[in-house]
Amino acid sequence: MAVVSLFILVGPGQAQETIVIEFAAGANQPNAVPYRKMLETANSTQNKYKFVLEFKPGANGVMAIKTMDLDPQHRLATAAPSFVENSRSGLINEDDYVAVSTQGDACWAVITNIGDSREGISSLQGQKEITVGGTGYGNAAHLTALIIGKKYGFRVRYIIYKTNYDALVNMAAGEPINFVLERVSNYQTFATKNPQLQILGINCSQRNSQVPKVKTLYEQGFETPSIFISTIANKKMSKDQRLEIGNILDHAQEQIGLDYISATSDMFPPQFAKKHVTTQEFFDTKNLQMKVLTHRFEQEINEAK
Q1: Which band of pLDDT confidence, cut at 50, 70 and 90, is reported for residue 272?
Q2: According to the model, what pLDDT value does residue 262 have?
Q3: Distances (CA, A) of 215 to 81, 140, 202, 207, 244
Q4: Is 301 contained in some domain?
C-alpha cells in the first residue's frame, strides 16, 4: 500500500482525509502530479482538514473504491469511466456514491503502431482485428475501440493491463498491442525510439495543445467516451462534509490553474470551460454516456471477459 502524506503531522483539531487514487504513483501516471499539487494547496489554505494521498491501482478502479468504503468518513476515492461497468457487473453499487469534486476530461491520444497520423483514424480501415491494451473491460479505451471497429468492420481483442502506460510500454517494445489511449507526453517519450507509433486522434472534446494539428475523434466523425476523473465519496459521509471538502478541492484546483493541470496530466477540469457545470452534473453526464455505450456494446464486452 502506497500512502503519500503531504505533511508529516496532523495539526491539533485537524481531521485527516485520505483520497484513494486508482492509478499508480509515478509521474507518468494520470493525476499523480496535479493531485499532489492540489492537496498541497488545499492543506495550505485551510486548517480543518489534512489531505493525504493513497495509491491503490488495480481491478479497474474497484480497489480504490473498496478501500474508501473501509472508512467512509475519512476517505474519498477517484472514479473514472470504469465506474459504470463496475456497477453493471455488480462489483460496486453506484447509488452508494456521490461526486464531490472533478478533475475533468483527459485529452489523451489514440496511439497505434498500425495507423498513419496523416490520415488519422481512417487509416485503420482494412484491419481485420486490433488488439487494445487497457485497464478494464467496458472502460473508455475498450468502448472507443469498439465504436471505431463497428464503423470499419474490424474485431477488437482486449488485453488487461494494470495501467494504460504499461500497455504503451509493451506496444513500444514490439508486443502485439495495436491501440492504446495515453497521455501525449508519454507517447513522445517512446515515439523517437519507435517511429511506428502514431497518434491518430485526441479522445477529448478539444484538441491537445501539445499536438494542436491532431484532430479530435469527434472532428473525425466519432462520438467516443473520453477518460474522465472525479473524486467521489461514500454517501455515509455527511452531506455537509462532502460539500465542504468539495469546495476546498475545487478552490485548490482554481488556484493551481488550468495551465499547470493541463501540462502535468493533459486534464481539462470543467470549471475552466466557458459553460459552467456542477461537479455532480459533470459526473452524471459522463456516466450516462457510458451507460448508453455499455448497453450498445454489452454483448461485445461480455464476450471479451
Answers
A1: low
A2: 81
A3: 22, 18, 6, 6, 39
A4: no
Domain boundary among 207, 225, 243: 225
Give the three-state DSSP class for 73: coil
Q: Decide if 303 is inside a domain.
A: no
pLDDT at residue 7 is higher than 50: no
232 in the same domain as 95: yes
Q: What is the mean pLDDT of residues 249-264?
A: 87
Helices (H), 60-194: 62-69, 82-88, 140-152, 164-172, 184-191
Q: Which domain holds residue 115?
A: 108-225
pLDDT of 112 above 50? yes
Q: Are 132 and 139 in contact (CB under 8 A)?
A: no
Q: pTM for this structure? A: 0.87
Domain membership of residue 120 (yes or no) is yes
Sheet holding 198-203, edge to edge: 155-160, 129-134, 179-182, 108-112, 198-203
101 and 186 in one domain?
A: no
Residue 304 lies in a domain: no
Cα separations in angstroms, 229 against 16, 30, 49, 305: 22, 9, 22, 24
Q: Which amino acid is at 1?
A: M
What per-residue confidence (pLDDT) applies to 243?
96
The C-alpha atoms of residue 208 and residue 201 are separated, in whole angstroms, by: 10
Residue 263: give its domain's CATH number.
3.40.190.150
- What number is the average pLDDT over the span 91-106? 93
Shortest CA distance to 54 belongs to which of 66, 41, 43, 42?
A: 66
pLDDT of residue 8: 40
Q: Which of 104, 105, 79, 106 is nearest to 94 (CA)?
A: 79
Does residue 10 have a pLDDT over 70?
A: no
Domain boundary among 184, 206, 225: 225
Q: What is the tally of structural domains in the chain?
A: 2
